[in-house]
């Protein structure tokens, strides 16, 4: 288990790619479950049902975006490793976000401090770069295109989860 966590961390450090993850359906399922659970833990929503809907939507969009991109590029055989890499690095970023939210609880209020805002923004930018790095390898794209798709994915996810947040506030 520690070895696969190290692979996810190395992907976040741009020293590995999705091709370095074992092709395992078992690992895929557990990584996606962990991604969903970390989504529940980091959701800004207070009530269980909207929080769950938000985490389910985020998880489905992660899997859907990956599968759609692989299908368009005719690289569906890379699905297991790509989704595992995206979900696994998402778990790593979720854990980092949880630590940030515990250290800087003011981020959950309406006016967070400048430092905690910059820290979260930095994490989002780093996360987009990691997603772009994964997509570059998985979809055989230049890095700029992978980052572009990553920005589209993150923007869409934030819009959908934001709409869920507004609908249940």
Report on the architecture of this protein:
With 169 residues, the protein is mainly alpha-helical. It has one domain. The chain has helices at 2-12, 25-42, 48-72, 79-103, 114-139, 143-167. α2 (25-42) runs parallel beside α4 (79-103) and α3 packs antiparallel against α4 (79-103). The radius of gyration is 16 Å and the shape is globular.
Notable characteristics:
single chain; 169 residues; mainly alpha; 6 helices; globular
Helical content (DSSP H or I, runs of 4+): over 70%
Helix count from the secondary structure assignment: 6
SS-based class: mainly alpha
Tally of distinct domains: 1
The description of the largest β-sheet is: none
User: How much is the average pLDDT?
Assistant: 92
Question: Can you give me a brief rundown of this structure?
Answer:
The chain is mainly α. It has helices at residues 2-12, 25-42, 48-72, 79-103, 114-139, 143-167. The longest helix has 26 residues, at 114-139.
List the helices and strands and how they pair.
Layout: H1 2-12, H2 25-42, H3 48-72, H4 79-103, H5 114-139, H6 143-167
